[in-house]
Structure formats: structure tokens, C-alpha cells
Amino acid sequence: MEFALSTEQEMMVETARRIGEQFGLDYWRDHDERKAFPREMWQAICDAGLCGVALAEEHGGSGLGMIELALAVEELCAGGAGATLAQIFMLNPIFGGVAISKFGTEAMKRDLLPGLVSGKINFCMALTEPDSGSNALEVRSFARADGNGWRLNGRKIWITGVPDAQKMLVIARTKKVEEVERKTQGMTLFMVDVGREGLTHQAIAKLGTNTLSSSNVFFDDVRVEPDEVVGTVDGGWPQLLEVLNTERIMTVAGCVGAARLASRLAVEYTSERKVFRGAPVGSYQGLQFPLAQCHAETQSARLMNLKAAWLHDQGLPYGSEANTAKLIAAQALSKTTERAMQSMGGMGYAKEMHVERLWRDARLFRFAPISEEMILNFIAQHDLGMPRSY
Amino acid sequence: MKILVPVKRVVDYNVKIRVKADGTGVETQNVKMSMNPFDEIAVEQAIRLKEAGLAEEIIAVSLGVTQSQETIRTALAMGADRGILVETDEALEPLGVAKCLQKIAEKEGPGLILMGKQAIDDDANQTPQMLSALLGWAQATYVSKLEIADGKAKVKREIDGGLENLEIALPAVLSVDLRLNEPRYASLPNIMKAKKKPIDTMSPADLGVDVSPRLVTLKVTEPPKRAGGVKVESVAELVDKLRNEAKVI
Questions:
Q1: CATH of the domain at B187
Q2: A47 contacts B188? CB cut-off 8 A
Q3: What is the DSSP letter of A129?
Q4: Of the candidates B34, B70, B188, which has its C-beta nearest A49's C-beta?
Q5: E strand intervals along A49-182
Q6: Nearest Cβ partner for B188 among A7, A18, A62
Q7: B237 located within any domain
């Protein structure tokens, strides 16, 4: 086993650290308040080649793996952004990049990947529906054959980043549930324009992760061209799963970076803050032990995530590792932001201390992109061999 | 024109320095090491000159332990073309470094040597001046603005109380100050390209230079802790304290 980073990996992490620092806490507080997409930072990330870490060199990427992408995302998030920045990596290099480079046509790769890597094109992904959340097989959006293409009708919910995206990966049924033997059949992935006629969206008011909007999306007879299919018509389900699994690794990298950030803010504040007898409150075990516990959990999740990334890069199954890391990382982040706020007392509640933003954002990752309960179901069933409970 | 840029491996500026328990130096084991920030500014300036068509090749040189290679790689990833490592485990002093750089400059024939005004570890601020004397070249220190034209360098120097404008003939040694530019970070494609750029390795003996220390370090200690201040009641008391306690007037 080899845990040391290569010189190139270390240099890449250093570049990520500097970008994270340049677009730091105040930048994110401001963008969170204005509910504005972190455009300038995303452009800097793309300019430094960090969006294309894991994409092929022929399309402008660097041809590295998930390990490098995870390391870069963690460091970028630790600078001041917190975990929500990792979501933009899910939207672009994962939903756009992995889907197109694994299953897209040559024309799609040529037309879309260079723009993705350079930051000119943003993506979003429309899977979840009002009656199809954790049970994604219940998707009802339907693409009806129309000439050589399709007409798409249906409704999606909780779709991230729609107003700032040009392209949307849509998961829809191309065969009705009644027409197929198994529910996993009859699904197709499409890459459509967000601005297309008949596609409308409306933002959902929410608790945090304010720089990325979450939307209701409506398809009203949206025309889909034949060259907009990603992968196999009626055979999109296993392809979708491949895209979604890499998303877990991004989530954990973001959670670990955010937990490091919250922990650092708490340590800095409590090392200075004196209340009784001239000793900093950070010298109390009552404050130290919970933060130390959070740190231990964060580091464990980090290690498990890098194992998942390594397995992915070797072409080996990594679902158990990615899910395990996601469970622990999201919990550790929630706990760390909670303890950081408690350690700061009233000041932790103030916007100027930044922890309240990280605390709000952290809540999302305990049920997105997959809930704790569904991960526990997965572990019980697949890793422990217990009967399916749901 | 070639540009030579010496780059030093130092303890990262974010690291809180700790004195070794035995008082022989500062702790560098398991401590993050980086390129001296002033040297980064020198590398950046060299790249900008090359981008402006005023230089053809940038050579990054480092002296020290094997790991100084990583510092050279960073310079190559920023945009330098090739590297030279003068490898030694000796504790290097400014004069030894300047002598090695002199030999390399005589061999490579650069039109310009751009270097940080000082390194943030020992803060000696001596190597550029010594190097210019050894080479018999013009020098300008603390450069905060630079223009190259017609075989000359027009520089603005940061000096006590203001800025000094100089025009010096090339080849020259310039030591750069903080406000000259803001160094770029290495983009990932350039990091990958740097892997393939060559680094020559040699020893001080290969250059015919004896770098053995001329100085003996007796002891390294932490600076004394700052005592808390006091408030005085009146100007008279202040003057009295300055005269009799602090003994500064």
C-alpha cells in the first residue's frame, strides 16, 4: 500500500489550495447572501485545469483519475467554500463529463467536452421527480417517439444549478412501465438544451447551499433530437448508475474539505477567546474532545473515500466503499459544524464568523445525493448479506 | 536571451516555525516545504518576459538536498523550461550559493539573473549582491518594476523613503521585491508537462566550489516572549519611562 502523494499530486493540491484561499470565506459569504453562482471561482478552477482532472487529454482534460479529482475538490472546499462547491463538480465533470465521455457520441464529445473543461458550458442533471426520489425507478417523465426524435413530457424536482446551466442530462422513460418486464428497462438518458422551448423551471426556497439554485423543472412537449441520446435507448439505467456512483466520491471530498474548514475556524476562535481566568476556552477538554472526535471521523471518511477513488481508477467495484465514506463524511460534517458553532458560543450564530453558512449547507448532505437510510439499507443488504428490508 | 532563476526550498510560509529541542536549528522534519515566495515572484517575472518575447529560455536552479528537485518542478510547472539541481547535504551559506551560481552563469551565459531579494528562512539578503560582485555584473536590488529594452533594464527599486529609478546594462543580477507581480499558480496541464522537462543534477564539487560552512551556529533559540504593555497616565510619565526604564532617549 502506498499512501504518499506524487510530486504532481502535491503540486495540484497546492494549486487547489491557492485557488481556495483566493476565493475564500468572504467571497462565499457574499455569494451566499446574494444567492449568486460562484462564476469567478469556477472560471479560475477551469483555467487551472481542475475541472478536467479526470477527463481525457484529447478533450482538454488531464487524463488523471478520481483520486486526483477528490484531492483537488477537498482542498478547494477547505479554503472557504465548504461542501457546496463540490456540487458544481458533480454537475460538470460528473453529470456532464462522465456521462458524455463514457456513453456519449463522438460528436457530443467533440462539441461539449472542451467547453466543459474550459468553463464555457455548465451542466445540470434531471433525475428526481415528486414521486421518484430514493426510488429512482419510479421515474414517470416520458419521451414519446416523434418522427426521428422524441417529445418529452413530465416534471422534475430538486434539480441543482438549472439557471446557470446550458445543458441538462435528462432521465426519462422511453417505454412505459407496463410495457417492460423489469422496471430497470425502458429508461433513456438525453442531453438537451436548458433553453429549449417547453422547458421551464422555478427555484425552490430552501435552507442553504444558496449559490446553487434547486428547481422544479417542467417539460411540456419538449422536442428531443435523435443525436441527443446519451448511451442506449431503453437501456439507460445501468449507465445512469455508473454516473451516480462517482458522484458519491465528490460529495465526500466536499464534506471532508468543509469539515476541515469548520474545525479550523473553531480552533482559531477558541484559541483566542478567553472567558474565565485568562485561559482560552480552547484549553477546556469539554471543547477539545468533541472537536477531536469530529476530526477522527472526518479523517476516517477521507481515507475510505480515497480507497473508493483508487478502486474506481483500477476499474474495480467501489460502491460499498463510496457509500460507507458518504455515510460517515456527511455525519462527521454535520457534527463538526454543530460543534464548531457551539464552541464559538453566540458568535457562531453570526454571519461574520462563517460557521453558520457551513452548518446550514452541511444539513443537505445527510440526505443528498443519497440518504443515510438508503446507505444503511445498501450496507445491510450488500455488505452484510441481510434480506432486503424495503 | 536566457534567464537564470535561482529557487530555494524553504519551510512554507504558513507553517509556524519550531526550534529543535537541542537548539541546533529549526524543525524541518514532517514540515511542509515550498518555494521561497520571493523566488516565485522572480519565476513569474521571467515567464512574463518570455511571454512578451523578450526571453527564449528560463532555467530554474536550486541548491540543496535531493528534495530541492520538487522546488525546481514547481518552477517548471509555472513555466520555466529546464532545471539544474546542485545537490548537497551541506548547510549552505550565501557565499557558497553565490559561487555555485557564478559557475553556472558563466557556463550558461544568461542575459539576466532574476532572484528573490531574500529567502524567508534565514532572511540573509546577501546572495544576489555577492553573485553580482563575483560575476562583475551590474545589479539592482528590491526591484518592484522592470522593463527590458535595447540591452538595458529599467528598474524601480524600493528603498527607504521612496522609489529609486535605475537604468542598468545587461547582463545583470536583479533581486525582486514583493510588489513586482503576483505569481501565478501552476495549472494542472502545466504540472503534467513539467514532468517531462529535464533537470540536470550536479554537485558543488563538479562546479569546483567548496561550499563547506564558514560559520559555526552556536545555538538557535525562540525569540523572547513579548511582555504585555502598560498604559501611562501622563506625558511626563511616558518620557520618564522612555528615559529611565527603556533607556531609549
A1: 3.40.50.620
A2: no
A3: B
A4: B188
A5: 123-126, 142-146, 149-160, 167-173
A6: A62
A7: no
Asked if B228 has any chain A CB less than 8 Å from its own CB, the reply is no
> Do B188 and A19 lie within an 8 Å CB cutoff?
no
pTM over 0.95: no
Are A159 and A250 part of one and the same domain?
Answer: no
Q: Quote the domain boundaries for residue B142.
A: 2-222
Q: What is the CATH number of the domain that holds A281?
A: 1.20.140.10
Chain A residues inside the 8 Å CB shell of B83? none
Per-position DSSP letters for chain B, written without gaps between them: -EEEEE--EEE-TTSPP-B-TTSSSB--TT--EEE-HHHHHHHHHHHHHHHTTS-SEEEEEEEESTTHHHHHHHHHHHT--EEEEEE--S---HHHHHHHHHHHHHHH--SEEEEESS-TTT----HHHHHHHHHT-EEEEEEEEEEEETTEEEEEEEETTEEEEEEEESSEEEEE-GGG--PPPPPHHHHHHHTTS-EEEE-TTTTT-----SS------PPPPPPPP---SSHHHHHHHHHHTS---
Whole-number Å distance between alpha carbons of B146 and A157: 56
Please report whether residue A368 resides in a domain.
yes
Per-residue tens of pLDDT for chain A, all 390 residues:
789 999 999 999 999 999 999 999 999 999 999 999 999 999 999 999 999 999 999 999 999 999 999 999 999 999 999 999 999 999 999 999 999 999 999 999 999 999 999 999 999 999 999 999 988 899 999 999 999 999 999 999 999 999 999 999 999 999 999 999 999 999 999 999 999 999 999 999 999 999 999 999 999 999 999 999 999 999 999 999 988 889 999 999 999 999 999 999 999 999 999 999 999 999 999 999 999 999 999 999 999 999 999 999 999 999 999 999 999 999 999 999 999 999 999 999 999 999 999 999 999 999 999 999 999 999 999 999 999 999
Number of domains in chain B: 1
Picking from B113, B87, B82, B89, the residue whose alpha carbon sits closest to that of residue B176 is: B113
Same domain, A303 and A317: yes
Closest residue in A to B67 (Cα) is A7
